[in-house]
Design a protein that fits this description.
Blueprint: E1 6-11, E2 27-28, E3 31-32, H1 33-41, E4 48-51, E5 64-67, H2 75-89, E6 96-101, H3 109-117, E7 126-131, E8 134-143, H4 147-155, H5 161-168, E9 171-175, H6 189-200
Parallel strand pairs: 1-4, 1-6, 4-5, 7-9
Antiparallel strand pairs: 2-3, 6-8, 7-8
Helix pairs in contact: 2-4
């Protein structure tokens, strides 16, 4: 699968309820959290889309485009739909959207490339990563052909990523790591403290 067929999308429109403030803007090792993921993915892609509903700071790059959700309060599925809609409305040639959270500071592009190598496009239109016992519903590869189905399901009230993906027929890609899990994400202030300790080791 070629990178030029994939649009990377960073989902930063969440309310960060457990964190207590917009975690994408939290400082970790002197750098805001969202910039860790942006630094990795801007190297290998022609364009990077951020879906965020507030004015946020982020890495400065001509490759980065920021949009808001087409409709607010639809959760991560709404962010994915907004990205797919942007692809269609701007006549982009992307066939796939790669979704990334804004709160995974230890992720590297090598992890994504390993994920892509394990994918057989004929098996599904939706792929998620599982590492250890945890399924990562935000680290995914979504066919843009799902846009109409996703729109219809959002209209009738679908919000849960995992349930929707299971109904569609998601293919899970298992990835094992002996040392630190690169998909460790920060949901709470305690998680941020753990990440700081990992950085300082």
């Amino acid at each position: 699968m070629e990178h030029n067929n994939i649009l990377p999308v960073v989902l930063a429109g969440g309310k960060s309820k457990r964190f207590g403030e917009d975690k994408s803007q939290a400082k970790l090792g002197g750098k805001i959290l969202i910039d860790y993921i942006l630094k990795e993915i801007t190297k290998d892609f022609n364009e990077v889309l951020i879906v965020a509903n507030s004015s946020i700071q982020h890495l400065s790059s001509e490759k980065i485009i920021k949009i808001e959700d087409h409709k607010k309060n639809l959760g991560p599925l709404g962010g994915i739909y907004s990205a797919m809609k942007w692809v269609k409305e701007n006549n982009k040639k992307y066939q796939w959207i790669a979704s990334f959270p804004s709160d995974t500071p230890f992720f590297k592009m090598d992890n994504f490339n390993d994920f892509i190598k394990r994918i057989n496009e004929k098996e599904s239109e939706l792929f998620f990563i599982k590492s250890g016992e945890k399924r990562h519903n935000i680290f995914g590869l979504w066919s843009v052909h799902l846009v109409d189905q996703l729109n219809k399901d959002l209209e009738i009230g679908t919000r849960k990523v995992e349930r929707w993906a299971n109904d569609i027929g998601v293919k899970i890609i298992n990835m094992a790591y002996e040392k630190r899990d690169p998909f460790f994400n920060i949901n709470t202030k305690e998680d941020l403290e753990i990440a700081e300790k990992i950085l300082n080791d």
